[in-house]
Amino acid sequence: MSLYNVLFTSLPVIAMGVFDQDVSARFCLKYPMLYQEGPQNLLFRWSRLLGWMLHGVGSAVIIFFLTIASLKHQAFRKDGEVIDLSILGATAYTCVVWAVNMQMAITVNYFTLIQHICIWSGIFLWYLFLIIYGAITPSFSTTFFMVFSEALGGAPAYWVVTLLVAVAALIPYFTLAVVKTWFFPDYHNKIQWLQHAAKHADPEEELGVVLRQFSVRSTGVGVSARRDAKLVRTNSKVIHADSSSQSQATVELT
Amino acid sequence: AASPAPRSARAPSLPESTAEAAGAGRAARGVYRGPERRGGGGVAAAWGMMMDGSAAGTSNGGSGADGDAARRNNTRMPKYSKFTQQELPACKPILTPKWVVSVFFLVGVVFVPVGVVSLLAAQDVVEIIDRYDHACVPPNMTDNKLAYIKNDTISKECTRILTVTKEMKQPIYVYYQLDNFYQNHRRYVKSRNDAQLRDYKKSNTTTSCDPERFTADGKPIVPCGLIAWSLFNDTYSFTRGKENLTVNKKDISWKSDREHKFAKNVYPSNFQNGALIGGKKLNSSIPLSEQEDLIVWMRTAALPTFRKLYGRIYVDLKANDTITVRLSNNYNTYSFGGKKKLVLSTATWLGGKNDFLGFAYLIVGGLCIFLAFAFTLLYLIKPRKLGDHNYLSWNRHPAGR
């Protein structure tokens, strides 16, 4: 089962980490305000990390309980066979592989050929593994022996349960992602909308110009902001000193 | 912005199209140029190269044209390729209202019929469940069921009457259902030796079978382990009026188990010889591959409430038929508060009776359709211009934090 982390779900994650671009390089250079996502700590806040962890736990709970409730103690095939530990395990494992890979498909912003290969081959490899590992003699494959070829592959209940559980595990995330990008978008989400709109019309021109002007406004965070604030303070001190000395001078004069 | 002519003369080994297009674009729009850097991979380096003479930015500034030319010849910039510059052709999916609503709607439209079909299949299944472990205890021993079950002199025969509610077409599956029996307990699941069951040459290997490894005088038990030791031993026979309903007990186990995991030449030996008897005794002259009850039992169940196939009845049962069951109530579930039930059930393409799958599909499908409508309404009623910069989180407080 440790193969899980290594093989079946690591490749899409690595591919996403290496190849994903939320905003293309060209737009990155055009909108330097994107840089503010760093100092404002928008992407690695604890609340975001905990949100993802909670999502993982929630998906696991959904997958576990839905699988168990769908395949309880009754028969799962036309010939009256009931489930056992290995069959339930293989079904749950299949649901997890599907859910994780589809999660990747939803999360990735930049779908290259490599992402496609990683995601779809991840799923395909899982079934291939089930078939091949199940064909190895039971002295090696123990409980997995023939679990797919004999028990699960021909059971419509297996496929029906997989579809239900994988989709049900993803609906919460999908809904939240839609709500977030529609109503509470981050800066890079807006740029993505711009990129998308730019393909159809060319509102990029004016909106982009406005956005760019906006993006060179001052902010209250960062090195340059602190330097500017310091300058303002020193200048105001100078002005005060100046004006006080001037007023003294005028007083003296008069 | 620098003039295009010197730039294109200096731009080296870059694809013409990107240099020209970018150069032309920038010249036309007076683009704010980001910080230019030397070295490092990525697009910025390429841009740095393209803008070498016209550097208005940071680190390049001040160096003249000659210095740039020399630096360019010595550069260790990696060869340009779409892969290393991360400019692979890609589609950039985005959650447009059209896509979102259609995805939700599609899921809903697929799931609701599947749910209806599953529910219909589950409703088609006819099931008779009869709990008999309490009812079969003789009335004078209901307070001390444990003593009843352990006492060998008391007869464990019991008769139950079942009524068929709806017509049941053959094959009718006979199961015994146990509740609160944790066959998925970790130490229980491990308590077996598959090598011994598979290979008669390894009959003496009993590792991991504790505590059922050897008899009191040190002889190895075949099959060893707690799973085999606790083999279920109630028996059932059925009659309908005067007619005997034979229970076909062949092929109740998985074919792969019969052929590959339980050998044809391994026979039970020294089995259930100890002081504490956990379940059924096995006939030593029948090889393990034909001991189908044992094979079925050894496939450990996943949940604490489980059924195991006892046999099949190849007779149609009509509504209002009365089935008389003569069973022997041997198995001790009283010491751990378990339940025993006898189940007669038909099966459809989806299996036995489980309404949950149908309901779950209907609920998820309904939820998706509801979300589709909700998002459509939200998009129509509150058409926030997606990409509206006034709603940037930190630009709501333009003075900064």
Automatic annotation (TrEMBL), chain A:
The keyword Ribosomal protein does not apply. Its main location: membrane. One of its GO terms (cellular component) is plasma membrane. It comes from the Eukaryota. GO terms for biological process: phospholipid translocation. The chain crosses the membrane at residues 49-70, 113-136, 157-179. One of its GO terms (molecular function) is metal ion binding. Residues 1-186 form the P-type ATPase C-terminal domain. This is P-type ATPase C-terminal domain-containing protein.
Automatic annotation (TrEMBL), chain B:
It is found in: Membrane. Residues 1-33 have a biased composition (Low complexity). Keywords: Membrane, Transmembrane, Transmembrane helix. The keyword Magnesium does not apply. Residues 1-40 are annotated as: Disordered. One of its GO terms (cellular component) is plasma membrane. Pfam families: CDC50. The lineage of its organism: Eukaryota, Viridiplantae, Streptophyta, Embryophyta, Tracheophyta. Belongs to the CDC50/LEM3 family. The chain crosses the membrane at residues 99-122, 359-381. This is ALA-interacting subunit.
